[in-house]
Design a protein that fits this description.
Order of helices and strands: EEEEEEHEHEEEEHHEHHHHH
């Protein structure tokens, strides 16, 4: 990831600690996939191997008007969510143009129930190989949807509130063409939360999204998480740099705001080498650690962060101790990114 591809925005306002100002930025970093797909995979088939969940399973509703409560088990249609899941997963895999992607729905064996997550049997695997010539099979073997809806009267606000906790439990298995058994199994729990308010219970409920729409959102969220396991992805993380405490640091901050990181780094390195104040050295070293992270020089970033910790520890103040502790956590993140960099390069090299 080159420095010119870094996306960042300055948060509104600044965080003030003692006499210095810490400016917070958001940067975009690349993360490797959790699962390393074999490098010879060219064709992928995504399979729906789930039985539809009965409408009366997994849902609960509780309502209270402030004096009495009532509980029920509503029926919600969840049929078709397995198709939605696999169709969306196939579409997203296809959109990255790394593989040729097929999607297919299997007829579930008569002995399988919706609660079971049975792997594909040998005849199903062979059928998929013969019909698609795929190198990788991704099979959705189970998808359970649960929900809990609550309608409550809030005495302190004189309002009704309706909420829904939605949970989904997808299980997927990955097979290569050479193996008759899965080489990786994904079991995850996804959850989302919705709420709405109203002066009356009818008003609160009428403005609430239909549960079926919520379930679709839940499926999409689950696919988001699965994609991060299967392919490299970007995510935004917060970082900070010291933008005052020294006139040169203020000048460097102006370069950062204009995305001129090399110019800012030249100032930070000069200040570190030529300023005798321990605090200023600590600030500029921490800033250099951020710069080195942005240009993917993680060993140097760790070295600069460790120098900054040493200088903060020399200062003995409570604020300096807090800064040192924050930098120690940052060093942990840098070491993680260093470990991920090799895996990410390997994954991108084979695509």
């Amino acid at each position: 990831m080159k420095k010119h591809s870094i996306l960042y925005t300055l948060f509104l306002g600044f965080v003030f600690t003692s006499c210095q100002t810490v400016s917070v930025i958001t940067i975009e970093v690349k993360r490797p996939a959790e699962i390393s797909i074999p490098e010879d995979v060219q064709k992928v088939v995504v399979v729906n191997n789930v039985e539809d969940q009965p409408d009366d399973y997994g849902h609960k509703a509780l309502s209270s008007n402030g004096t009495t409560s009532k509980e029920s088990n509503p029926k919600f249609k969840t049929a078709g969510l397995g198709d939605l899941f696999t169709n969306e997963l196939a579409a997203r895999l296809n959109s990255i143009h790394w593989f040729t992607v097929y999607k297919q729905k299997l007829g579930a064996p008569s002995y399988k129930t919706f609660l079971e997550e049975l792997p594909l049997n040998n005849s199903q695997i062979q059928e998929l190989k013969d019909s698609t010539q795929s190198d990788l099979i991704i099979s959705l073997d189970r998808l359970i949807i649960e929900s809990e809806i609550r309608l409550n009267y809030l005495n302190d606000q004189n309002l009704f509130r309706v909420t829904m906790d939605g949970r989904s439990y997808p299980t997927l298995r990955l097979y290569t063409a050479k193996e008759g058994r899965p080489f990786y199994t994904i079991r995850q729990q996804d959850s989302l939360y919705w709420q709405n308010y109203g002066l009356t219970s009818d008003q609160a409920v009428s403005g609430f999204p239909a549960p079926q729409n919520c379930f679709q959102d839940l499926v999409m969220y689950g696919v988001d998480r699965i994609m991060k396991k299967l392919v490299p992805h970007s995510e935004q993380v917060n970082r900070w740099y010291y933008s005052s405490g020294n006139i040169n640091l203020h000048d460097a901050a102006n370069y950062v705001k204009r995305n001129r990181w090399d110019d800012a780094a030249s100032i930070w390195e000069y200040v570190y080498e030529n300023n005798k104040r321990v605090k200023v050295k600590a600030f500029s070293a921490a800033n250099m650690a951020l710069y080195c992270e942005i240009i993917d020089r993680f060993d140097e970033a760790i070295e600069w962060a460790e120098k900054s910790v040493q200088h903060f520890n020399q200062m003995k103040s409570d604020s300096a101790r807090d800064d040192a502790e924050a930098l120690i956590q940052y060093i942990t993140e840098l070491k993680q990114r260093k470990e991920e960099a090799g895996k990410l390069d390997e994954q991108l090299l084979h695509q």
